[in-house]
Description:
The complex is a heterodimer of chains A (about 300) and B (about 375).
Chain A: E1 4-15, E2 18-29, E3 33-37, H1 44-51, E4 59-64, E5 67-68, E6 80-83, H2 95-105, H3 112-121, H4 137-149, E7 155-159, H5 167-182, E8 186-191, H6 194-200, E9 203-208, E10 211-216, H7 218-225, E11 229-234, H8 237-246, E12 252-254, E13 257-262, H9 268-276, E14 284-289, H10 292-300, E15 303-305, E16 308-310
Parallel strand pairs in A: 3-8, 3-9, 6-7, 7-8
Antiparallel strand pairs in A: 1-2, 1-4, 4-5, 9-10, 11-13, 11-14, 12-13, 15-16
Helix pairs in contact in A: 2-3, 2-4, 7-10
Chain B: H1 2-17, H2 19-40, E1 48-54, H3 59-70, E2 74-78, H4 85-92, E3 96-100, H5 104-113, E4 122-125, H6 130-151, H7 170-200, H8 203-207, H9 214-244, H10 252-275, H11 279-296, H12 308-315, H13 318-330, H14 335-359
Parallel strand pairs in B: 1-2, 1-3
Antiparallel strand pairs in B: 3-4
Amino acid sequence: MAENVIEVRGLTKHYPDVKAVDGIDFDVQASEIFSLLGPNGAGKTTTVEILEGLRDPTGGEARVLGVDVRHGYAKIRGRVGVLPQEFEPFDRLRPREAVGYWAKLVNRTRSDEEIASILETVGLTSRANTYAMHLSGGEKRRLGIAMALVGNAELVFLDEPTTGLDPSARRDLWGLIRELKREGKTVVLTTHYLDEAEQLADHVAIMNKGKIVARGTPDDLISRHGGGTTIVLAGAGTGGYEALAARGISAILDGGNVLVHVAMAAEVRRMLAKVASIDIPLTEIYTQRDTLEDVFLKVVGARMAEGELVA
Amino acid sequence: MKRILADARAFGVQYLRSRIGAFFAFAFPVILILLFGSIFSQGGSSIVPLYVQDLDGTNLSQNFTAILNATGVLEVRMIPRGIAIEDYISQNSVNTALRIPAGFQNQVFLHVTDPTVRVNVTLYGDPTQSTYGIAAAAVSGAATQFNLGVAGATAIVWTEPKTIDPGLSYIDFFLPGMIGFTILTTPLFGMTSICAEYRTRKYFKFLATTTLTKGEWLAAKIIFYSLLMLASLLLMYAVSILVFGAQATLTPMALLFVVVGTFEFTSLGMILGLFVKDSETAATVANAIGFPMMFLAGTFFPLESMPPFLQSIALALPLTYVNEGLRATMVFGNDALALTYLLITLAVGIVLFIIPARALSWKSK
């Protein structure tokens, strides 16, 4: 059993008009990627800012690297790296200068070679001498991650690191985050992208209105809250739907496709064979596993698009 | 100390790469020195034009005009008789004009037999203009000389003009004020807007994730601004010597004033920064505090030229002690007085430093 790097018990943060964090519990184990997932305003950033020592909780307990976040955070400050939400670098510093500067602020002395190595890790070698204001959005986030890593932090908080980036830049950053895990670092990732959490996280906690409404590994969550597997009969149309209904198979007509839902994983093979034996005109047949998106819909009761809940 | 120097260096690099910052620290004070130095030093004309309308046209009125011309500070320009003097002033944007009435000579002769008869000449002008004061004094002096001549008397008491130090010129008195002005504006305006920028761009929060403390961050700014102001001082001093032949002395006490004054106004800027949320508010707040202080603290005008209630206000302004202290040490060589002002500046600076060091919060609420 890996040790817990973060332990949260009954954590609350209340404001006069809102309970931003409302009694949450979770643990983060060493060397894992832990994702706090939820829409804007769910309480993710408030939670991580408490864990970063930037905000005092109203109640409950939170321990980071064995230290109570209310007291003694200074002792672990150098072991924690942070990429804040909406990070903006200092415009007139070059990445090489910014990383060297930040190293000194976390009591590290980094040689030029070490700084070059960190910039290579985040893929900024060719932009090391460019003013930060001329970097792209993705490059700025990479610089932020380089600054968060420069102290050789063992715990890294990444608060919505890919928000606003194009798909290519997002996938590049995913690779970088996986690399951090391979190096043995613990990563706490907040995001409102369901696919990001599913792709990267070892454990996920879904937050909504200050509470954790589900948590576990992505597979666990899908097993527990998802609807199983869907067999898609592409192009089967109304005829296909009626043919299945005539044989007592429950299906859904979704545009030109017919969807057959299978709750139990063990039943998928049998149902697939049964459906394939029926003579239905179709263009393709394939299975679709439920995703965190389906889990989210079930536990929150709404879909999420760009961080906002939609009906 | 390593963190403070690292922060001061990174901040300084960014500051100097911003051309606006470098302009206000170096170019702007030099421009002001060149401008004011040129206006008030030898390059400027001290002759005031006086427009005279002689409605009498007699020997005595022409004699009076000649006396005016001979004062050396007035250049008499005649206004034709056929036009109302008020219209002439309005049409020609004349600053100062004198009307010698018709019957001037007759009235003077009448006065010889009847001492109660008075002879009035009328001086028109805008009292807010410095040229008006010069013209009024010159006309009054000419009238006195004319009166003595008519009475057959001679002057007994004479004024012998002598400057405090023959080597000193206008620029020597102006330079300390300019140094004080730069020490006020650069850190005060800079820190206020930096706080707004750090808040809106969440740099404070990012800095809070490091081991740098608030006090260290403040100290780094003070170190950088002190070095910047010392460099600016040397530049201003060099320009004053090379261009205007300034004689003011750059004393160790003056250098101390730059450091302590910068400490004071950087801290004041930080206090203002506690209350501003964005760059626009920062500029407004810094202007509201900085500009009145700039003018009331004897930067451009001597304190003695102000009404008593404004002089009382000036005594409560921190810049007053920086300006007067710099003048005391650089112009008059009075280091004892300068030391008193330096200690006042230091004491106020410590108080102003403690406030933001305690009140500034990098944490979110």
